[in-house]
Design brief:
66% of the residues lie in helices and 8% in strands. With 417 residues, the chain is of the alpha+beta class.
């Protein structure tokens, strides 16, 4: 029995030293939600020296799309050609005496509104890329809030596990004393030791979960060092009040921009059906007579076989697909808003009930039972039962607070403009 007590006390002491001491030493270094958002680049932060790759990629795509708008405005380049005829032949055409030199400049003329439709298509793609970059920022902000809330919940569960270990240590100590004076059978002390061992195992599992949650949070800004400490107090994440007022979230705007870009692409492909003539002008010099003559020419492709019909059909199909995705996005958006709002309100109600009614009652019941147990009026099983009831309510409160934070983060993501 003393060996079991000594081993349990040693494990508990090491656990408390590993958790409480670093937290106390680094109390001022606890990471806040605003700091986490700043480290990822979701909000401006002076400490940011490098942009987050999750944001850099979409922003670079948006910059590329803007560059393509400038490229689309450019007109075709003129062409210059030089022809030398009647050179190095036989008879009268031997040598260079009968050579003819032709220098001409040609210009392709874009007909059918090709340039205008090309620019509009590029602009539509640029707008789509800008929205996708904004959406990437909103998605990153959601991930930060979601993982921060998960880390805070894990820290709360570590605190709960620590409290359970401390309580079971006290119960095991009292049970040992009661057994020594003959007021409890030895089985009671064994039961208390078993409860303490189980609580210590739960503490180790909670610590591992907390470490994994904090590591997942730090991965959002590429931190490869020790994960930051997150307070057990849940951050106050307020969902936007007007999220149900208008269906204009970034997800819907991206879907609509895809439809707009697909429609602009159809116009561009249709403009390519019309052939572009090439007008040329030049001068020809006759070496034999030292005479010169001006040349004018025009060439027009004959669209007998290729009228760009395949590309037009493909663009029309892509527009139908984009319209379908937009309809699905609208339905999914409305359903997601309704679900997230219901989850938030339900979690808010659970938090209110558990924190103001259930938990205080359970705490008072446990306090009274523990006093009675110390005085020998209640058996150990009554204390364990009351403690388990209180712990279940605390766990339910942590889960409700986590659900509330996750739902608020989802509503913020859905309302992003």
């Amino acid at each position: 029995m003393p060996a079991i007590k000594w081993r349990g006390a040693l494990i508990a002491g090491l656990t408390l030293a590993a958790i409480v001491t670093p937290v106390a030493a680094q109390e001022r270094e606890l990471l806040t939600l605003d700091e986490a958002l700043g480290r990822t680049g979701v909000v401006a932060a002076p400490a940011n020296t490098e942009l987050n790759p999750r944001i850099v990629g979409p922003q670079a795509e948006a910059e590329a799309a803007q560059a393509l708008v400038g490229q689309a405005r450019l007109r075709p380049n003129p062409e210059i050609s030089l022809e030398v005829e009647n050179i190095a032949g036989s008879g009268a055409f031997s040598g260079l005496s009968a050579t003819e030199y032709t220098l001409a400049v040609g210009q392709r003329l874009e007909l059918g509104g090709k340039r205008g439709t090309r620019v509009e298509a590029a602009r539509a793609q640029a707008q789509l890329a800008d929205l996708r970059a904004d959406l990437a920022g909103a998605e990153l902000g959601f991930l930060v809030r979601e993982r921060y809330v998960a880390a805070a919940a894990a820290a709360s569960r570590v605190e709960l596990a620590l409290d359970v270990v401390e309580r079971n240590e006290e119960l095991a100590r009292i049970a040992g004393l009661l057994v020594e004076v003959g007021r409890e059978p030895p089985l009671r002390a064994l039961r208390a030791e078993a409860a303490l061992a189980e609580a210590q195992a739960e503490l180790q599992a909670a610590e591992a979960t907390s470490l994994a949650a904090r590591t997942a949070l730090a991965s959002l800004w590429g931190d490869q060092g020790a994960p930051p400490l997150v307070p057990s107090r849940f951050p106050g994440i307020e969902p936007p009040g007007a999220v149900m007022a208008t269906a204009s979230g970034l997800q819907l705007r991206v879907a609509r921009a895809e439809s707009t870009a697909a429609a602009a692409e159809i116009d561009r492909e249709r403009s390519l059906r019309i052939p572009d003539p090439v007008v040329s002008a030049g001068v020809r010099r006759f070496e034999e007579s030292n005479d010169s003559a001006f040349l004018l020419g025009v060439s027009i492709p004959l669209p007998f076989l290729n009228r760009n019909q395949g590309n037009i059909a493909a663009a029309e199909a892509r527009l139908r697909a984009a319209n379908a995705r937009e309809a699905v996005a609208l339905a999914d958006f409305e359903q997601a808003v309704t679900r997230a709002r219901s989850q938030y309100l339900a979690a808010e109600a659970r938090v209110e009930t558990l924190s103001t009614t259930s938990l205080p009652q359970a705490e008072e019941a446990l306090r009274l039972v523990r006093i009675g147990y110390r005085n020998g009026r209640f058996p150990l099983i009554e204390v364990l039962s009351a403690a388990e009831a209180r712990d279940a309510i605390r766990e339910a409160l942590i889960a409700a607070q986590e659900d509330r934070g996750q739902a608020a983060a989802e509503l913020i993501r859905l309302a992003a403009q």
